[in-house]
């Protein structure tokens, strides 16, 4: 039985806003994933890079827009008495800005300030304990392969919100959707039948 759903934030609940190309320009190098770059840098460079990232993140949080259907979808989950959580590679400060701006509430939140960032499964294990729900009964929803990798490694079912065709081959989501409100159909799927764990389902 599905008992809880974990959502990514940027790109899943909100439209992607952080200009990572601009972040790299300010850092002064093509660094790829900023968190990975910072982790491998000297303490001084790490502090500088994270300061730049956090500045762009906070700006994006203040300018954030919800994806269509988010509010209605969360209201549906509340009526179904499904517990919800937020898991993001962003800072807790930017999370708080987004939630306050859009009047959203999540009882359970894990940011990069609380645990290793995705794709490491540790943040889902932490949320599993916080929610008192085994990962077998959790669903991880995100818009990038790191969300799927994180969920798979922790033992949850996974949902990919597509912005374009998913071409990754190292990890395949259990479900793919084109709009966040299609989570409703996945819940109905769980209610009607056991999930076929082989392959994926499109909605």
How would you describe this structure in keywords?
13% strand; 7 strands; alpha/beta; 7-stranded parallel β-sheet; 203 residues; Rossmann fold; 8 helices
Describe the fold and architecture.
It is an enzyme of class 3 (hydrolase). Keywords: Hydrolase. GO terms for molecular function: phosphoglycolate phosphatase activity. With 203 residues, the chain is an alpha/beta fold. It has two domains: 4-15 and 65-202, HAD superfamily/HAD-like (Rossmann fold); 20-62, no CATH class. 42% of the residues lie in helices and 13% in strands. The protein is built from eight helices and seven strands. It has helices at residues 20-27, 34-39, 43-62, 70-79, 92-102, 122-131, 145-154, 183-192; strands at residues 4-7, 83-87, 108-110, 138-142, 157-161, 175-177, 201-202. A seven-stranded parallel sheet has the order 3-2-1-4-5-6-7, with helices on both faces. Helix 8 (183-192) links the parallel strand 6 and strand 7 (201-202). Helix 1 packs antiparallel against helix 3.
């Amino acid at each position: 039985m599905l008992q809880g759903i974990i959502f990514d934030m940027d790109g899943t609940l909100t439209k992607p806003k952080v200009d990572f190309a601009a972040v790299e320009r300010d850092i002064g190098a093509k660094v790829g994933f900023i968190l990975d770059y910072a982790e491998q840098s000297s303490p001084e460079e790490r502090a500088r890079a994270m300061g730049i990232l956090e500045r762009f993140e906070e700006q994006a949080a203040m300018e954030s827009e919800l994806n269509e259907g988010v509010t209605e979808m969360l209201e549906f989950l509340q009526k179904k008495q499904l517990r919800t959580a937020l898991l993001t590679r962003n800072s807790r400060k930017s999370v708080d800005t987004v939630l306050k701006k859009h009047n959203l509430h999540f009882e359970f939140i894990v940011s990069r300030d609380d645990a290793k960032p995705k794709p490491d499964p540790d943040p889902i294990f932490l949320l599993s304990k916080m929610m008192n729900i085994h990962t077998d009964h959790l669903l991880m929803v995100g818009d990038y392969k790191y969300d799927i990798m994180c969920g798979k490694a922790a033992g949850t079912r996974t949902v990919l919100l597509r912005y374009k065709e998913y071409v990754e081959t190292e990890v395949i989501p259990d479900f793919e959707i084109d709009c966040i409100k299609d989570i409703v159909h996945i819940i109905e799927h769980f209610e009607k039948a056991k999930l076929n764990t082989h392959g994926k389902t499109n909605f």
